[in-house]
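Quick check before the chapter quiz. The format below is the same one you will see on the exam, so make sure you can read both the input and the output lines.
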Amino acid sequence: MEDLWIVKEFEKVAELMPEKALRLIKKDPDLLKEIVISAYLDGIISLGKAAEVLGVTREELMEEFKKRGIPIRTPDREDVLSEVEVITCL
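Here is the expected output.
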């Protein structure tokens, strides 16, 4: 925990160089998964978007959430629109 300052400084650098920060994060699948799940729990992204970013199906991600005890949100209007966007991209 004494190196927590590194994380805080990374946030600042990521704002200046988002593409580079994203490349680094995407190199670590476990870190990316935790960030995506956190974004889902915070209501920033939908289940469909989370699955898309992680490269899995909604059903696979729902199963992962069930194993972890993560509640599945009832889709709101934005979730439905996101799902439609994912489907139309296929």
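If your answer matched, good. Residues 11 and 23 are 14 Å apart (CA to CA).
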